[in-house]
Amino acid sequence: MELGILMPPLPGRATNLARLAESLGFATLLFPDSQNMAPEVWGQLMLAATATTKIRLGPGVSNSVTRDPAVTASAALSLQVQSGGRALCGIGRGDSSVQRIGKQPDRLASFERYLASLQTYLSGGTVDRDGFASRIEWLRAVNVPKVPVEVAATGVRVIELAARHADRIAFAVGANSEHLAGAIDIARTAAQAAGRDPAALRFGAFVNCVVHADRAVARDAARGAVATFARFSAFAGSKLARLPLPLQNAARFLREHYDMRHHTEASAEHARALEDTFIDWYAITGPPEIVIARFKQLAALNLDFCHVVPGSANIPRDVAVASIRSLANEVLPALAG
């Protein structure tokens, strides 16, 4: 199981951040696509590509609301060329990038059409755009592998449509191994029903994780991002009664109290209100031995990858730096072994 990392690039720091992530041994580096909160993602990824040679790169994640599928396909292909085949196209229905322009996450039917169009564009095919035959015409001039499309999925219906259209699924359901195993089963069943071989899909997860000898410090550093990812289970239309009880209670609370003005912030009231027992259930926090044991539970599910979310906004810098270095120096070697 490979470990990647999701980190927002500071303006002017994308190349240094990419070099650091690669030197630490992470398999993938994701930058968020949230135009009002972080620099333009595809430009930052192109800079990262010029500064690295091995690490995979992609948005974590882009969305089907703010970008046309042809625009996304062309950007992902450009990154694939620039990086020598290391691009990854992460996509979702939209969160902060959509909210910050006064819109809502994409509807399921629209999102599924978007995925189908994106895959067709990336494969060199022609997409019917209301009677107009549209394709990425410059793709014929390059010789690169197809960019894999990775869908960030939480709810049952998004998992099922991802199993029909994606190359990779990154489950955003937390790090509880039993709950994650259930999400994987949903994807496998949906892939088979669609006539796809589940073995052809790559499965992974977004994992909120902070490594620190003091577990209370680790929990507090993770809780802002935990609230963000747990809130995905509370989106409109989600049937909370289907969720495991710890997540059910947290999702019900976050549905009513999540404050987007303090998105991902560890000090947000909605984040501080989450119980420590829920943080321990949903995320992986604490000293290296606890973190390693939890990741090994996830590896036992035959996951192909995990994208680590290494903290929350506005946490102490020394906590963030120490956690990332512990991930690289202690957790990665233990998983490789």
Task: Determine the mean pLDDT.
Answer: 97
Specify the helix fraction band: 40-55%
User: What's the β-strand tally?
Assistant: 12
The end-to-end span amounts to 11 Å
Task: Tell me the major beta sheet.
Answer: 10 strands, parallel
Order of helices and strands: EHEHEEHEHHEEEHEHEHHHHEHEH
In terms of quaternary structure, the protein is single chain
Which geometry do the CA atoms define? globular
Helix/strand/pairing category: alpha/beta
Tell me the radius of gyration.
Answer: 19 Å
Report the uncertain regions: none
Strand content: 15-25%
Instruction: Please work out how many helical segments DSSP would assign.
Output: 13
Give your account of this protein's structure.
The chain is an alpha/beta fold and 337 residues long. It contains 13 helices and 12 strands. The strands form 2 sheets. Strands 1, 2, 3, 4, 5, 8, 9, 10, 11 and 12 form a 10-stranded parallel sheet that branches. Helix 1 (14-23) crosses helix 2 (41-51), helix 3 crosses helix 5 (108-122) and helix 5 packs parallel to helix 6 (156-165). It is globular. It starts with a strand and ends with a helix. The relative contact order is 0.12. The model has no long low-confidence stretch (mean pLDDT 97).
Keywords:
single chain, 337 residues, alpha/beta, ten-stranded parallel beta sheet, two-stranded antiparallel ribbon, 13 helices, 12 strands
Mind sketching the topology for me?
Layout: E1 2-6, H1 14-23, E2 28-31, H2 41-51, E3 56-59, E4 62-63, H3 69-83, E5 89-92, H4 96-99, H5 108-122, E6 127-129, E7 132-134, E8 149-153, H6 156-165, E9 168-171, H7 177-193, E10 202-211, H8 215-231, H9 245-257, H10 269-272, H11 276-282, E11 284-286, H12 288-299, E12 305-309, H13 317-336
Parallel strand pairs: 1-2, 1-12, 2-3, 4-5, 5-8, 8-9, 9-10, 10-11, 10-12
Antiparallel strand pairs: 6-7
